Amino acid sequence: MAEEEFDLVVVGGGPGGYVAAIRAAQLGMKTAVVEREHLGGICLNWGCIPTKALLRSSEINHLLAHLGEFGFAADNIRYDLGKVVNRSRAVAKQLASGVGHLLKKNKVKVFDGHGKLAGPHRLDISKDAKLVASVRAPHIILATGARARQLPGLESDGHLIWSYKDAMVPKTMPKTLLVIGSGAIGIEFASFYRNMGAEVTVVEVLDRILPVEDSEISAFAQKAFEKQGIKILLDAKVSGAQKSADSIAVTIEAAAAAQTLTVDRVISAAGIVGNVEDLGLTGTKIVVEKTHLKIDEFCRTGEPGVYAIGDLAGAPWLAHKASHEGVLCVEKIAGMDVHTIDWTNIPGCTYCRPQIASVGLTEARAKSVGHEVRIGRFPFIGNGKAIAMGEPEGMVKVVFDARTGELLGAHMIGAEVTEMIQGFAIARTLETTEADLMHTVFPHPTVSETMHEAVLDAYGRAIHF
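RESULT FIELD:
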């Protein structure tokens, strides 16, 4: 089989891989993508995008249940779960086909199969255990992503114990549900199913939910979720499960005592592991640490000409981080002047109800690395637009360096904060100070005014609270 030669080959067509390939093509490189399952990766097909479609449906269901607050009345409101799921899948399919179009437009060749390193600057591509192509390239980017971590004794079975994929295509709505893990994935599923009417319990092994968020935001979120009827068990772990025909009895250890909870379904959302298997890493200088590939600031592994980006390269496990790494990596290969990534400038978003978003350092982290801080807060109840929308629950918290005025971090919970956080992300990237933010004019009436007021509050100048 003759080898086909490229300037760059990307293994994995997710949000890191396909973006890297398109950028390489823009820079004049002969480029190929190897994808064994679906263009767009987990994010587009089974993660970021379809879950947001589901969450949108659940938000509408919640709104319909509270029509009276807005002066409306309606009878016999119900939903068709099949249509809710089908809409989510249709959204994912539409965008996945769009990725294929973009790659074709940019003259990127797509190989359908599994890519495996086969020596220096070589890659073998197989499909159904048969070699279908061999390629050679001076630069190979590994972007194979990650998958859900399976808990021993609680492996997903597609029936009683659901993976995130199973949870996105339910055939019936469970009346009772247990979610293991309170990170972004677990909390989003808890929010979706609660808004659709299920009784939801969340189990978290740590002492608070959403542990990567600022502690004040975590506490605010827990109160909001509990007010909605979500039961939250902290410092707890699932130690066993007994399956029946259509329910599962789960043993939960918490506060030095055990309890048994019987639910219709369990969602396991206890982290992810990198897809490092069968990549041909043996015999290379690539280092694997906790199922992720070790890279330098320009995404280079220890093996010359081999790079890793996205979830495969470790935290933060975010699609936008993967895309940015892809561009950075390719531009460095092309010899461009590239800025390395400041990981603290990457915003994180959780699309539950209420939404949560953050960028930069938490208050605790800022103090732990030696900053003297000034803290500003502003509640949504003091914002006219939030009240008019019927969304008065929320807050913005900002963390400044008390000496220099540098914006160290921003943390938000409430309606539309996942859209608003980019304002603070830009501020972090441009290294703005409190003075710059104070002098910025925010439009009225908008929820974004809470951002301005939080900054003012850090310096004793808040107007509306």
